[in-house]
Amino acid sequence: MSHTTNSNSEIKIAVIGAGNCFSALYQGFTYYKDSTESDNIPGVMFADIGGYRPSDIKVVAVYDVDERKVGKPTGEAIFAKPNCARVFAPDVPAGPIVQMGHVLDGVSSYMQEQPADFGFRVSDAKPVDMVQSLKDSGADLLVNYLPVGSQQASEFYAQAAIDANIAFLNCIPVFIASNPKWEQKFIDAKLPLIGDDMRSQLGASVLSQVLQELAFDRGMVVDFHQQLNIGGNTDFNNMMVQSRLASKKESKENVIRAQNDLRGIAVPEHSLFAGPSTFLPYLKDNKVAYFNIRLRGFGDASVTIDAKLSVQDSENSAGVVIDAIRYLKVAKELGVVGALRGPSAWTQKTPPEQMMYADAKLECEALAKRRLTPSVKRQLTKA
Ligand SMILES: NC(=O)c1ccc[n+]([C@@H]2O[C@H](COP(=O)([O-])OP(=O)(O)OC[C@H]3O[C@@H](n4cnc5c(N)ncnc54)[C@H](O)[C@@H]3O)[C@@H](O)[C@H]2O)c1
To answer: Taking the chain, what is the end-to-end CA distance rounded to the nearest angstrom?
Structure first.
């Protein structure tokens, strides 16, 4: 695809949570800043989405609540503890000063009691007026990178996005885009959103999904599908609290379960496990997933897949967020409102409508070319 420069050439984003995922994304803007000409950017899924390149994205506001980040320039805050994401672009710009967000249920008592390198330390700064601050920033959209289990805080920030008249990208397993009540609020405000709970560029979710699809396409019976995940970043530590972990497990299992549902195949009891399994600080931002998939084929003959996937968790997530931001901007320009079906199914674990891999990809490719697909047309009628 050739690069079609867009006249509105910038996408301004505001971000909640200057943790590891944002560190990788922010470094990515520097890493890819000169990738303006070729049709292919190594490491990036789509070089051009509706005329926008990764280098067209500008961070205009950042909010956090940790005393080691609030009041610091973004370019310093992303390298502050407890972040442990790999440093692959050290010379990032200073960027906006990180502002004090609203704590609500974003920080658990467990995370406040953890050693400083693996936990959160809440700042005593005064929280900003969120809606006014978002309006002043001129942001086109707000990205939610809060810790898992931040139900009230996510709802608070989603409402702030609506009140500031900007789009919303919900990267975490709090159900907003996939909750019809919340989607209706965005439709009423004539705003698009993408969610919920991003799936990585080549991570455990997409691998589980395509293995499940492959099994069904080849006529196999899936007796058991296990995906165990371990890691050493604060995301994994935060999920040591069982009550916060529940939504992540549900979201991860949704990815696999959806492929049964789309084909009308029942999921037998105890035949599925996908979820974070433990926190191992030694691993830092390296996430390791272990798959065990037990299948039956011709004549009931067994086929077993044992696989291990090892990734850098935060870069892997930034690789989809850099696209999701551009889908939202293009949708906004086309007047598409509500939870974007194709891009949500392609970039998130729990979208409002699950799709097969190939269908979600086609929807995204079409939107990238500003072509109206059936799902985009359906969305336009909601405007
Ligand atoms: N590949 C991935 O890493 C991946 C994939 C899917 C989903 N996610 C989700 O993305 C989210 C972010 O992941 P991460 O690794 O960056 O987490 P992180 O723990 O590194 O960062 C979370 C940040 O949020 C801040 N915070 C806490 N409460 C806040 C509040 N009320 N307001 C503003 N800031 C607040 C923390 O201080 C911290 O800086 C998590 O929910 C994670 O599950 C990550």
So the answer is: 29
Cis peptide before 82 (omega within 30 of 0): yes
DSSP bridge partners of 142: 14, 168
**pLDDT digits over 170-227, tens only?**
999 999 999 999 999 999 999 999 999 999 999 999 999 999 999 999 999 999 999 9
Task: Please count the structural domains in the chain.
Answer: 2
To test the pocket of ligand 1, the residue of 108, 146, 206 to mutate (highest count of ligand atoms within 8 Å of its CB) is: 146
* 274 neighbors 252 (Cβ within 8 angstroms): yes
Look up residue 134 and give its two tokens: 């978002």
Whether 140 is covered by a domain: the verdict is yes
> What is the chain's mean pLDDT, rounded?
95
Q: Are 204 and 309 in contact (CB under 8 A)?
A: yes
Which pLDDT tens digit goes with each residue over 294-349?
999 999 999 999 999 999 999 999 999 999 999 999 999 999 999 999 999 999 99
Residues 44 and 155 in one domain: yes
The ligand 1 atom nearest the CA atom of 311: 1
297 and 220 Cβ atoms separated by less than 8 Å: yes
Asked whether 146 lines ligand 1 (CB < 6 A), one says yes
Going from the Cα of 19 to the center of ligand 1, the distance in angstroms, rounded, reads: 5
Confidence of residue 375 (pLDDT cuts 50, 70, 90): confident
Q: Are residues 125 and 56 in the same domain?
A: yes
Pocket test for ligand 1, best of 15, 64, 320 (most atoms within 8 A of CB): 64
C-alpha dihedral (130, 135, 141, 145), degrees to nearest 10:
-20
Domain of 225 in residue numbering reads as 204-313
Name the residue at shortest CA distance from atom 38 of ligand 1. Answer: 19
Cβ neighbours for 331, distance < 8 A, ≥ 6 positions apart: 167, 192, 340, 343, 367, 376, 379
CA distances 200 to 45, 207, 212, 311, Å, are 12, 10, 17, 10
Q: What is the Å distance from ligand 1's center to 322 Cα?
A: 16
Taking Cα atoms as reference points, which of 144, 174, 289 lies closest to residue 231?
289
> Do 219 and 105 share a structural domain?
no
